[in-house]
Amino acid sequence: MSGPSTTPTGEQIGGRCQTGGRYALRFTFLDHSERLPYSAVTEIRIVCNDALPRRMLEYEREGRGWLGRLIAVITLKKAVRQEGFAEFILEDSQPKSRTVNFVDRRTGFVFETDITSRRVGVDTGLSTRLDVTQHIRNLIDDLSKEAPAAVRDKIALAVAADRWPE
Question: pLDDT of 57-66, one tens digit each?
C-alpha cells in the first residue's frame, strides 16, 4: 500500500442512541497526525435486537452499563476476526463501510454492526490503511477502565478468549 505510516491517536466517544426505536451503541474515533494534512473518522454503530435493550437498560440502572457495552464489543471483536475483516484502505474522501452481524450464542443477543471510515482533509493522492481492529482493541481497553478493579482480570481473560466468561 502506498501512503504514510502513522500511529493514530484515537478519540473514543461512546454513547447510547436509538436507531429505528432499537437500542444502539455508537463509538466514534478520530485518527489524526500533526505531520499529515488529513484525518480519518471511523464510526462503529452496534444495533441490538429487541431482547437486548431490557438487559442493557437493567445494567445501566444497576450501575453496570460497562458490562453490556463490553459484552457487545468483545462479541464484535470475535465476529470481525471470524469474518477476516481488519482494515479499510481509504483512497479518497469517500466513506468505506462494512456490516458485521453477529450473535452472542450464550445470551441469544443479536447485533447488527455498521463500521464506516472516511478520510477528511487534503487529498494527497495516497492511500491510507486504517486498522479497524486496533480501534476495537482500544475501545475494549477504554470500556474496561469503567469496570471495578476486581473484575478486570476476568475481562482480560474474556478478551483473550474472544468470549464473555460464564
Answer: 888 899 988 8
User: What is d(CA 111, CA 48) in angstroms, rounded to the nearest whole number?
Assistant: 5
Angle 42-43-46 from CA coordinates, rounded to 5°: 150
- Decide: helix, strand or coil at residue 143: helix
Cell representation of residue 77: 471483536
Instruction: Write the CB contacts of 11 (distance below 8 Å, at least 6 apart in sequence).
Output: 28, 29, 30
HEC secondary structure over 57-126? HHHHHCCCHHHHHHHHHHHHHHHHHHHCCCEEEECCCCCEEEEEEEEECCCCEEEEEEEEEEEEECCCCC
pTM of structure: 0.81
**If you search the block for the grid coordinates 435486537, which residue do you land on?**
49
- Asked whether 156 and 143 are in contact (CB, 8 A), the reply is no
